[in-house]
Amino acid sequence: MKILLVEDDKTIATGLEYSLQQDQFSTVLCHDVASAKKIISEGLSQFALCLFDVSLPDGTGYELCQYVKEISDIPVIFLTASDDEVNIVMGLDMGADDYITKPFRIRELLSRIKSVLRRYQKQGQPNTMIAIHNIKINTLEGKVYKQGNEVDLTALEYRLLLIFANHIGQVLSRNQLLERIWDIAGDFVNDNTLTVYIKRLREKLEDNPQNPTIIKTVRGLGYKVGE
Q1: Buried b or exposed e, range 2-36, using 16+ CB within 10 angstroms
Q2: pLDDT of residue 182
Q3: In whole angstroms, how large is the CA radius of gyration of the chain?
Q4: 224 has which bridge partners?
Q5: In principle, which of 14, 109, 158, 169 could form an S-S bond with 153, CB 3.0–4.6 Å?
């Protein structure tokens, strides 16, 4: 699998490139936005994943992420020196699949990369039964079961659950959820309504809605359904 790596710090870039290649990934390395855009425009389809530093000498990783997502839905992970919530949420809202804050351990980065790639591979395969903890979703029948017993969900609750089920392991911001519910349902859902629907889903799916283990809140970022 080939990864597009964009990192302006040449020492960090060399170390990352070596580690990725040791783990059987092939890499194309760029040090700025201009050269990365040239590579992307010439053949984005050759890459399985993009790894973008946020701060670059002639622009930002956000700009590159937006450029990539306009062409293809391939995964993007941000490398950022800042763990500021605003910056992280901005990246997730632009369609990034994950982020990792510098300094980081290379094993953690490799784990994040493989997790994101697994998620995309699963999404590319037709799957009529999705399992999340003790919850099973039969997408052919449009039915949800908890420990074998059918759970009665409204149409919008079911759609919201499907969004989570198709992004297992990924942090979804409230804005991302609102946009996707709007697109799928064609109904108006505001921020307060989203809170109500997540609360109802937890009440129907969680063993202890006050301490959720399925739909988890990621403080300051959004929500995440674990594998």
Answers
A1: ebbbbbeeeeebeebbeebeeeebebbbbbbbeeb
A2: 64
A3: 19
A4: 216
A5: 158
pLDDT tens for 194-222 read: 899 999 999 999 999 999 999 999 988 99
Which domains, ranges and CATH numbers included, belong to the chain? Answer: 2-123 (3.40.50.2300), 129-225 (1.10.10.10)
- This prediction has a pTM of 0.59
- How many CB atoms sit inside 10 A of residue 227's CB? 11
Give the span between the Cα atoms of 100 and 79, in whole angstroms. Answer: 5
Q: Which residues of the chain have pLDDT under 70?
A: 83-86, 122-128, 182-189, 227
C-alpha–C-alpha distance, residues 158 and 185, integer Å: 10
Query: Rounded distance, CA 166 to CA 82, Å?
Result: 28
pLDDT the model gives residue 185: 45
Q: How far is 146 from 58, CA to CA, in rounded Å?
A: 51
DSSP, collapsed to helix, strand or coil, labels residue 177 as: helix
d(CA 116, CA 120): 6
Our separate counts of H helices and E strands in the chain read 8, 13
Structure tokens at 23: 């783990």
Q: Residue 45 has what pLDDT?
A: 81
**Which run of H or of E encompasses 109?**
helix 106-123
**Residue 223 pLDDT:** 93
Q: Please say whether the dihedral angle defined by the alpha carbons of residues 133, 186, 89 and 43, taken in this order, is positive or negative.
A: positive
Buried/exposed 182-193: b ≥16 CB within 10 Å, e otherwise? eeeeeeebeeee
